[in-house]
Automatic annotation (TrEMBL), chain A:
It comes from Winogradskyella haliclonae. InterPro entries: ACP-like_sf, PP-bd_ACP. This is Carrier domain-containing protein. It holds the Pfam family PP-binding. PROSITE patterns: CARRIER. Residues 1-81 form the Carrier domain.
UniProtKB/TrEMBL annotation, chain B:
Keywords: Transferase. InterPro entries: 4-PPantetheinyl_Trfase_dom, 4-PPantetheinyl_Trfase_dom_sf. It comes from Winogradskyella haliclonae. This is 4'-phosphopantetheinyl transferase domain-containing protein. Residues 2-83 form the 4'-phosphopantetheinyl transferase domain.
Length: 83, 187
């Protein structure tokens, strides 16, 4: 999967939870889920569960800790898929 | 230092489905699962525990500048309205207030009364709720510390921790905002 394909999938996953349309339109690797997209912190759990379902992976506590922005989410998914 | 977190109960019902498989497992420890399952109102207990975890996290990052997402590792212990939240070597005391509309928790390093001021937003009149809340915080801090509002500067550091800065001093604060409710605490 290319980075672009991965970003597209992540964008679809976060879309139901975003509260800032403008930041969502401009979503990139540098986008922060909370600071930029204004996602409610309880909904980060939904995003984590959605990522697990979409990529058929399991995210542990240490993965969740870093799950605050697109770049980290991409790195975590890539590591899990490679493992 | 103080950390606070408010949950708009109606908004939480809209935003989150805690019955979703795995949802509770990602957030709560085994002991917290017992607290939830043994409580009369599971939804209320879930959001109470969540607000305690968030409030304690906000306090923790003031002492330990950092940013991370580890709700399950902030473990809650409760007794009536009072609670303790532990994370690694860090321990904080919490007070919670529950009404039919919102749940608010406040975390501090020593046992103390809840001092958050809660504000109900009137949506159509307020374009920017965060800005409105900040104004309320500034005016309250101005009175409490006897400093002109103009001399108070609102700052957020790289980790998102807010403070009020004035000539020669820093005031620790905490802000929270969810749905139709917001609150601020000064300490």
């Amino acid at each position: 999967m290319t980075n672009q394909e991965l970003i597209t999938k992540l964008k679809a996953i976060v879309s139901p939870y975003i509260q800032d349309e403008e930041a969502f339109k401009n979503l990139s690797e540098d986008t922060d889920f909370i600071k930029d997209l204004k996602i409610n912190s309880a909904n980060l759990v939904d995003i984590i569960l959605d990522i697990e379902d979409e990529f058929d992976i399991r995210l542990e506590n240490e993965d969740m800790e870093k799950m605050l922005d697109v770049k980290s989410a991409m790195a975590i998914v890539n590591t899990k898929l490679a493992g | 230092m103080v950390g606070n977190d408010i949950i708009d109960i109606a908004q939480a019902k809209k935003d989150s489905n805690w019955q979703r498989p795995q949802f509770l497992d990602k957030i709560f420890t085994i002991n917290e699962h017992y607290l939830i399952h043994n409580s009369k109102d599971k939804t209320e207990t879930i959001w109470r525990l969540w607000s305690m975890k968030e409030a304690a996290y906000k306090l923790y990052v003031q002492q330990n500048p950092s940013r991370f997402y580890a709700p399950k590792q902030f473990e809650c212990f409760i007794e009536n309205d009072t609670g303790i939240v532990k994370f690694k070597n860090f321990s904080s005391y919490t007070e919670t207030k529950i009404t039919s509309d919102y749940i608010i928790s406040e975390a501090s390093l020593k046992p103390s009364k809840l001092n958050s001021e809660v504000i109900q937003f009137n949506a159509p009149q307020i374009n920017n709720q965060s800005e409105f809340l900040r104004q309320k915080l500034m005016s309250s801090a101005s009175k409490q510390y006897n400093i002109l509002e103009d001399e108070l500067d609102f700052k957020k550091d790289d980790y998102g921790v807010p403070t009020l800065v004035f000539n020669g001093g820093t005031i620790h604060v905490s802000l929270t905002h969810h749905g139709n409710f917001g609150a601020f605490a000064i300490a």
